[in-house]
Specification:
- The protein is of the alpha+beta class and 219 residues long.
- It has helices at 7-11, 41-49, 126-132, 135-154, 160-167, 170-189, 194-209, 212-218; strands at 14-23, 26-37, 61-63, 70-73, 78-85, 89-96, 99-109, 114-122.
- The protein has a single domain (7-210), classed as START domain (Alpha-D-Glucose-1,6-Bisphosphate, Chain A, domain 4), CATH 3.30.530.20.
- It is 42% helix and 30% strand.
- An eight-stranded antiparallel beta sheet has the order 1-2-8-7-6-5-4-3.
């Protein structure tokens, strides 16, 4: 399946918010993304939680997919399923690269579809935040939410190779730039310096849109 939505129109379908919080006595940054889907809530729930369906738009998952069990996404994060209430939402830890953060997904029936609210809370290294801002993870979630829409709308599988190629296309780059800029504005709304936030967004755009071979050469 090819990604074919207008990139700027798609980006504007996501509401974004950044909040400062605390967990275990340490400061955190909380990124919230909200998007409405025309699909009914049971269909969205199934796309998010069915291990047979998840690889069709996101990535393969394995493990004990019950409350208290550990899951592992292929080549990505793993963690503990802390709570799960079908079809309302779930909470998991998001463990990657030696770091632990917390992910909550909530689904609400709007009467004309489903509202998905994703909340990702993390202890953030100040230097890393100043370098990349919330877009470092926020843009990745934008891409995931867009892929989910493509799957729900068409019922087709998202080809990982095509999806990766799309991020390096002119349309994909416009999507990533717009998403990063929106996340920067959300950070400014939480009190970040505007110039610093926008500079961080530029570095996030470069991270997502630099081909792997070019990044290797720069390294």
């Amino acid at each position: 399946m090819e990604i074919n939505s207008d990139p700027l129109e798609t980006v504007n379908l996501v509401g974004r918010e950044i909040r400062s919080g605390t967990r275990d006595g340490e400061p955190t940054k909380i990124a919230v993304a909200r998007r409405r889907y025309s699909a009914e809530r049971p269909d969205v729930w199934d796309a998010l939680t069915n291990p047979e369906r998840l690889p069709r738009w996101f990535m393969p998952v394995e493990g004990d997919l019950s409350v208290g069990g550990r899951y592992q996404l292929e080549g990505n994060a793993g963690g503990v399923i802390e709570s799960c209430t079908e079809p309302e939402g779930f909470n998991v830890t998001w463990e990657y690269g030696g770091q632990v953060s917390w992910l909550q997904v909530k689904l609400s029936d709007t009467g004309r579809g489903t509202l998905l609210e994703l909340t990702h809370e993390a202890h953030v290294d100040r230097d890393f935040w100043e370098q990349f801002g919330p877009g470092a993870t926020g843009v990745g979630w934008d891409l995931g939410l867009h892929g989910l829409d493509q799957h729900l709308t068409s019922g087709a599988d998202l080809d990982p190779t095509a999806a990766e190629a799309w991020t390096l296309s002119p349309e994909g780059k416009r999507f990533i730039r717009s998403a990063a800029e929106h996340w920067a504005e959300a950070a400014v709304g939480d009190g970040d310096d505007p110039e610093q936030a926008r500079s961080a967004a530029e570095r996030t755009v470069a991270f997502y849109t630099t081909p792997p071979e070019a990044a290797d050469q720069e390294g």
